[in-house]
Amino acid sequence: MKNSAVSASMQRVAALVVLLVCAMAAGAQETPAAPPPPVLPTTSKEIVVPDRSTIDTLAEIKKSGKLRVGVAEIVPWAMHDKDGKLVGFEVDVARKLARDMGVEVEFHPDEFRYLIPDLEANRFDIIIAGFSIEARRALVVNFSEPYNVTDVTIATSKKMGGELKAMEDFNKKGVTIGVVEGMTSEDLAALEFPKASIQTYTEDSALFTDLVAGKLAAAVADSPRLEILGKLYPDAIAVPDVAPLGTFPAAFAVRRGDMDFVNYLNSWIAARKADKWISTRRKYWFKTTDWAANL
After folding, report:
1. 40 DSSP assignment
2. pLDDT in tens, 251-260
3. Residue 144's Cα: distance from chain center in Å?
């Protein structure tokens, strides 16, 4: 009975990881994503630095009684459980942040690549989505201090990339590596494997489906998604014993010039690190699959 229960819960994780779509289910405290604006350019020379915000976000949040949070549905950062409720590490962080501010939380699920444009358009107050600190992003948003770290890892299709064992094996012509557009993994894969073909996807679902189906030699993504996929599909997916491609600090992102809000967020991070709240939630979501039973 115990083994069958574990198997059933892992199958629920598999369904969510592989079939996750960006169409968001509506909830009591969730609002549908607005029609997408143009995608933020990917090179620093093309990026237009926005004007500094004149909005006092802290005052507006307290006045409205709600913290509007931009999230991206990425396992296990944010996802819907079997009751349609948003759960995940970043969801816990957002709920705790709002509770400590004495306000309600309102989630705005979004495609990862639209998070910055929608933040600039004031569709929400803050990005809480495992957002890596990058120089090009810092041109258009203000980052808080890091509150988490993310490893970027690689996995192979046993059908198409079974012979790929070492990092240098991936950097060859004829090797196709899948990534999600707009994420850190896209830039890192292009940098690490300039001779390979980098195929971009707008959704995790299509990337993971193609990897399992053997349509890609490999995929690069934030840990622990590929590790979970490898455990669920051991006959189709292999996770090479190599070091992570990179480790990136993750932080809150807010509009440029909103330094009072940044100062508050930094204070909150320091307090939640001191009382070990962040490390406890991180351990639950990234080091276990106990949460799978609720999916």
Report:
1. P
2. 999 999 999 9
3. 17
Q: Kind of pairing, strands 197-201 and 176-180? A: parallel
Residues whose CB falls within 8 Å of the CB of residue 26, separated by 6 or more in sequence, listed in order:
32
- Residue numbers of the chain with a pLDDT score lower than 50: 1-15, 18-45
Q: What's the Cα-to-Cα distance from 242 to each of 199, 217, 255, rounded to whole Å?
A: 22, 16, 37
> Whole-angstrom Cα distance, residue 163 to residue 117?
40
Do the Cβ atoms of 71 and 128 come closer than 8 Å?
yes
Longest Cα–Cα distance in the chain: 59
Helix (H, G, I), strand (E, B) or coil at 196: coil
CA distance 186 to 180: 6
Q: Taking the mean position of all CA atoms in its chain, how far away is CA 125?
A: 18
Distance CA 82, CA 228 (A): 19
- Neighbouring-strand partners of residue 249: 149
Place of tokens 């996750």: 20
Alpha carbon distance 238, 226 (integer Å): 9
